[in-house]
C-alpha cells in the first residue's frame, strides 16, 4: 500500500518555506487551505501574460480563453462529469443562491424541500427562504446524542411532494463522511433531486460526482489548495429542467445559464494549477496512466495519511476529562475536522492560548448555527474546531496535542 511522501507534498506549498510562517501550524484548513505552488504560478502567469478579455481571436486573448476552457475540462475529468456540467462562481454560497432563484420559478406552492440541521448555512438558508413562495420546508434533524444524520429520519420525511433534499457530504463540525450514494439512491427513488454540499469533503480528495449520484454538488476551491472560487456540478438533466438565470441570449449555453455574474477569468484559468497539483501527486506515487480511477486512488492516498494523524488526536481528546467531543471518536468514515467543547472554558480562550503558541484554529459556530442549537451549544459561543489535511505533518499534530495538554 502506497504511503504519502510528506516531504514531496510540503515542497509543493510555498507556505511551508515562507519566513513569516516559520514555526506556525495551520489547523484551520476547513476554513481555507494553503495554496499549492502550481496554482500560484498559473495565477501569476494569467495576470502577467494574458490579463485581457478572453476568447477573441488575437493573442493573448485566445490563449487566455483556452486556459479557462482547459481548466474546466480538466476539473470535470477529475470529478468524472462532463465539462459543461461544471460551473464556477465566487463562492458556494453564491452558487446555491443562484439555484434558489431558479427554483422560485420552477417549484409550485405545496412542493417540499428537505433540509438538515447539520449543514453549513449555505446549504440551508437559501432553500428556507423559498417558504415565502409557498414552498414547504421540512427539517431532517440530527440525532442530538450523536450529532449524526440517520436514514430513518429521512424516510419519515420523504413523500410524494418532496422535490429536493439538501444535505452535506461531510459536516464542517461533526466531521462524519455521510453515505452520499445510499442517500441519493433513496432520494431518487422518491422522485426528488439531491443537492449535496461537498465543501468540507473536497479538500480531502476530489469526489467522483458521477459515482455519488448527486444532482448538484457544491464545493469551494479555496479549501482545495486553490483560489477563492466556488465550483458547482449541475448535471445536464437539472440544467435543462431549471430556468435560465443568465443573460437571455445565453440560454442555450449550459455553463452560462447559472452564472449571472461575470466569472473571474484568472481564477478559472488557475484551476489548471490545482489539477497540476493533483496530477503531480498521482504521478509521484503511482505507476499508472491518467484514467478514470485517478480520483479514487489519490483520494484514498490522502485519506490514509490524514487518518494516521487523526487517530492520536482523537485518542487524546476522548481520554481527556472535561472535553466533550462532537461526532465519532474513531476514524471510520471521518474527516480530520474535529470539534469539541470544554467544561467551563470558552472556546475563544483556548483559541487565543493556542494562537500565542503560533497554532491557528477556529472557534465559534463556523456557519453551522442551526447545528449548535440542535446540540444545545450557544451559537455565539460555539466550539473549538481543529482541522487539517494531508500536508499536515505528524510533528505538527504532536505539537498541537502537547499544547492542548498544557492548556486544558
Query: Mean pLDDT across all residues, rounded?
Result: 97
The CATH superfamily of the largest domain is identified as Type I PLP-dependent aspartate aminotransferase-like (Major domain)
Sheet having the most strands: 7 strands, mixed
Binned strand content = 5-15%
What does this structure look like?
This protein is α/β, with parallel strands linked by helices and 408 residues long. The chain folds into two domains: 6-36 and 295-407, Aspartate Aminotransferase, domain 1, CATH 3.90.1150; 43-274, Type I PLP-dependent aspartate aminotransferase-like (Major domain) (Aspartate Aminotransferase, domain 2). It is 40% helix and 14% strand. It contains 15 helices and 13 strands. The protein has helices at 6-10, 37-49, 61-79, 92-106, 125-128, 151-155, 180-189, 199-202, 209-212, 236-241, 265-285, 294-319, 347-356, 369-374, 394-407; strands spanning 25-26, 86-89, 112-116, 136-140, 162-168, 193-197, 216-220, 230-234, 323-326, 337-342, 359-360, 362-364, 383-387. The strands form three sheets. The chain has a seven-stranded mixed beta sheet with strand order 2-8-7-6-5-3-4, sandwiched between helices. Strand 5 (162-168), helix 7 (180-189) and strand 6 (193-197) form a beta-alpha-beta unit. Helix 2 (37-49) packs antiparallel against helix 11 (265-285), helix 3 crosses helix 11 (265-285) and helix 12 (294-319) packs parallel to helix 15. The longest helix has 26 residues, at 294-319. The radius of gyration is 21 Å and the shape is globular.
